[in-house]
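Input structure tokens:
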């Protein structure tokens, strides 16, 4: 468990607040299944009870675009434009 996980556990998910700055409209700060976010669990309960409507989340495509843009901004070049390497490809000639 990293430090954000501990902060998120104690603060009901606010340890992932940095994700809010990337996706301002998202009701969920912990964007991955393993990111503890008690606030999100509460929103899901309220939605199931019919007390919360129009709950918005980023799509997987939007998250990918943001991560590629972030890498480009840090100077990693043409991330996402080149064909990714085939890590699990069979060696040639076999």
């Amino acid at each position: 468990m990293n430090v954000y996980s501990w902060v998120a556990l104690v603060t009901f998910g606010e340890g992932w607040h940095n994700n809010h700055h990337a996706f301002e409209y998202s009701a969920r700060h912990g964007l991955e299944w393993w990111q503890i976010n008690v606030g999100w669990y509460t929103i899901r309960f309220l939605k199931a009870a019919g007390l919360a409507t129009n709950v918005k989340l980023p799509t997987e495509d939007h998250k990918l675009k943001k991560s590629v843009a972030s890498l480009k901004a840090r100077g990693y070049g043409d991330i996402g434009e080149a064909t990714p390497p085939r890590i699990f490809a069979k060696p040639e000639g076999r």
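Residues 60-73 form the longest helix (14 residues). Helices lie at 3-10, 18-22, 38-48, 60-73.
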